[in-house]
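ok so dumb question maybe but i'm new to this and my supervisor (M.) told me to 'just get the structure for beta-glucosidase' and walked off. so i did the thing. is this what she meant?? sequence i used:
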Amino acid sequence: MKLERNASMVEHLPSSNLVCYHDLSPELTTEERYSFPARKLIIPKTSEAYRLFLFSCGPGKLILDGKAIVDIEREWWSIMSFLFMSYDSPEEQLDVTLEAGRSYELVLESPSREPKPHNLTYVGMLEREEEAIELVRTSDVAIVVIGRDQDREMETSDMASMDLPGRSNELIFAVAKTRSRLFFNVWYQGQKQGNSLADVLLGTAPPCGKLPITSPHRIEDIRSFNNHFEETDVVHYGENIYLRYKRYDHCKIDPLFPFGSGCSYTTFEYTNLRLNTNMLEETGRIEFYVSPVSRPRLGRPPKELKGWDKALVHPGETVIARTTLDKVSVSYRDNSVQKWMVAGNA
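this is what came out, is it supposed to look like this??
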């Protein structure tokens, strides 16, 4: 590991806390690799052994008074790493004895990492899709599992589109033409996902979950679609109070699946009471919304979620759903007077 000595940028910081996620000089935002040394003088208050440790996303070297004490150039990626999506090296530790009152120069040298190579395997997507459709067509029962994995759904990156990976959308439509009875969206169930899905499909447990988001027909229906511009790093929050499901109600946009929707093996009758007409126990989730009766001085969404309840309903049983609605539930913030307001006859 050899660093280029012609510096394109020099900074003097009052702290050893160095964050390089943003605000770099234009010379460091190109596709070229770059390196940096960070130097700091340390003066121990007591004479004793101190533990120094280092892990880095790329090669890294820790130098104390001109002597390299940690060098992780040989090992810059490991499946045992736990930071930065496993791109960091395993942690290296070293105990050094330092004298009180003496000044030591501690230097960290690090170039940007090389791109991590990925193994590629030819799987023949066209043939496998046709094979899957044929299996569905000739099977009595078909369970098709489609979704994203940890390589496509992670922090520090945005989804390029609302589509599922590859030709997953085409496969879903092709399967639906053959077997169009039911589709489940199970989200991320963790290590017990297979067990949970099997319980639902076999009728041991009911699919009583509710959709926690609003699914639009198209990405343009999302309120924040026009708020981000690629030529700048500024994100404008232009949704105002019409966030999430409130946007669709306010603009009278028909969503693909509304917030709170879900399926069940039974039916519920919503009146003052609720009746379970199936032979299975069901966990019911009830949402409570408020809507303005009179017209407030400021614009308000047509309805707002203010409470919810969940109850286990045995076959033929009647239960009562409860929630607490107070003055906060019908209030809104008026920034012109810096107060929370309640409209008349709310």
